[in-house]
């Protein structure tokens, strides 16, 4: 047997300080993983219960009606000792065909609990798409000005100050602003346009800051080289700065898509309706398209979570909607994170 | 190359791209493409300033008119005598509170005795003396209650008449305005307007009989005083130590109550109907008002304090969970974790920020609130103040979920701050023989402290400004939490500033005082977020200088 050297023995024995260090590190580790566990639990809870609504074991494996129909009122009828669930349309047909069966039978109704969430998905896509378009155009152009043209002065300092402060304003205040400004003062009514502008202004500060950072990250040498070869400033920006900053701008925009899609408070009274029978493209005049309210996933979740009871009949629509919404937003956010990780590797100067 | 002056008259039109990129120009309003591009970018940048201006302008414009409206509201409150009646009401309410307190002592005593094995009749016989006291006490204020009831009816009627009259006045003004616009129908409209019989209400005369009843109240007070003296004398014949303690406390309350009767009387005497309501009174009624009461038949109050308290309680709770966890995670990831762990944990925590708040709120309603209540009902946890929880949705439910939202913010900013500490600091400390823990606690964290502070502030901003989670999970009761419950107050339902806007904005009548009040709340939120941002920037700037 080899006896370990004395020195090794001394250093291997944990000193009190070492032991304390280990304990504290474990505490830190546990806190970190506790946070992760909480998040994972939420994802699993909604993923499992909502996944059961959206996915099926039989072909076509996806609950197509849920994704393609409009919300309906659910009628629960007790027939022959069994509780039967029927959507509003089905229930009316059934009532006409066999009215004798329904005589004296108690009918429980749950609003929005049957059918699907198609108009909500459409509305969300429309809201997000339009507002991101507005925000990106405004934001990227502003960022180019700030990073390439602006020289430090009162105007620019005030601009930066306002952007930083706008980024911290609560989203409900944007909702108030949109309501007071677009819905009432400009008389758009509760409309897609009001929602677009409200949401666009809400993410504008984020897009500007992130895009400016991406532009600033392009090395000075690129610009100087181009200018030295006789290109104009605009040419330099278009050919030697923007292409390299574009990936960074892209990540920021994907991130803001996730943020826009996830917000409820600003659209509650600027753009969202609880129920709207027609789909957004079913309008009389083309101009009506902009001035119509839409249904949206986040607002729908708020309504079904707060206004209808939680039980086995309403659970499907609650968890199903939450599942679709959460995993769409999470998917967008994931794209942004993956994109950023890739681009960091690719563009290193 | 394009010609020197490529205006529209030139035969060969210059391709747009070339025109845009050329240095020489003046093809559009005498501007070169360069200048136009710069203007375009500049104009876009200016838009964000315009947006900030618009936001400020919109919410402030709708908010400032709240002040005169509320002033008017308070003026009517005083003129119609509601304020006068409320002074007396305060005294009567206090009396009935004390009366309820006596009943509670009685029921406790009754329970104690029946647990001790006595039957119902025996218990009642034993408590007969106590009942006599309680009844005399309750009856002592009967006269006051009658007077109060009569007064309430009187002033309600006056106020109703005033409301009707002012509505008619408004209708007449609308008709006259329409008449001025439309000459064809002017005559008919004017006739309609004249047809309204609008009552002129002389508030002083209406309220005079009320004020004249002051001697009556004084007389009633004297009788009450006598009755209370008797009550005080005949108290104290309970055997149990706890009950005697409760009775002693009752006597203390009684003493303050007796002292307050005189001051109520004085206030009633000093009450002056003609005293004008200043605008600062209107403002302080909002800023320091302890009641948010809308659509009340008696008087509407728009005091922001209950909402502000709700927001603050939730924010402080959420932060007290999020700060330790967020900072611990930041320290762990930056200083302790292996690089593979880092690569996994960092994006995952940042990913949490992507969970939409309404989904978190739904999770709170569907799962978390119920779980928390189940846990609170476990027998061996009953020592925790506030357990078992009375409500599933309360400040703590919302705060736990908000903490999860604040953690990514605090984590990523704090991690940045720790990352920015120069490596030489750490190396110097390690070289002197300090352990890693000592280095972290004594060197790294203090050096990054201001960055961490800024992170915490921004996390606070995030929590205060969050809407959906508090709207769904905080319980939405507009009341200042009852702090007499000690720490248990955190398990009471509250309402918040963001929540009230989201909840009431949809149903409120446009341009009414209630609508303006909601905008005032928005202004408070806006100012809070400006303050937080300003503080965070200030802290970060100072930090930069100190690192040098």
From TrEMBL, chain A:
SUPFAM superfamilies attached to this UniProt entry: MetI-like (SSF161098)
One Pfam assignment: BPD_transp_1
Family of this protein: Belongs to the binding-protein-dependent transport system permease family. CysTW subfamily.
Gene Ontology MF term list: phosphate transmembrane transporter activity
Places the protein is found: Cell membrane
Gene3D superfamilies noted in UniProt: MetI-like (1.10.3720.10)
Highest classification ranks of the organism: Bacteria, Pseudomonadati, Verrucomicrobiota, Opitutia, Opitutales
Organism from which the protein derives: Lacunisphaera limnophila
Transmembrane segments: 27-48, 125-146, 158-184, 190-210, 317-339
Protein name from the UniProt record: Phosphate transport system permease protein PstA
UniProtKB/TrEMBL annotation, chain B:
GO term, biological process aspect, one: phosphate ion transport
Ranges for domain ABC transmembrane type-1: 308-536
Xref: InterPro entries: MetI-like (IPR000515), MetI-like_sf (IPR035906), Phosphate_PstC (IPR011864)
Domain of life: Bacteria
Keyword Membrane: yes
Main location: membrane
UniProt cross-references to Gene3D superfamilies, sorted A to Z: MetI-like
Topology versus the membrane: Multi-pass membrane protein
GO cellular component: plasma membrane
GO MF: phosphate transmembrane transporter activity
Pfam families: BPD_transp_1
Coiled coil segments of this chain: 221-267
Keywords: Cell membrane, Coiled coil, Membrane, Phosphate transport, Transmembrane, Transmembrane helix, Transport
Transmembrane segments: 39-60, 301-331, 351-372, 393-414, 440-460, 513-536
Family listed: Belongs to the binding-protein-dependent transport system permease family. CysTW subfamily.
PANTHER family: PHOSPHATE TRANSPORT SYSTEM PERMEASE, PHOSPHATE TRANSPORT SYSTEM PERMEASE PROTEIN
Protein name: Phosphate transport system permease protein
Organism: Lacunisphaera limnophila
Gene: pstC
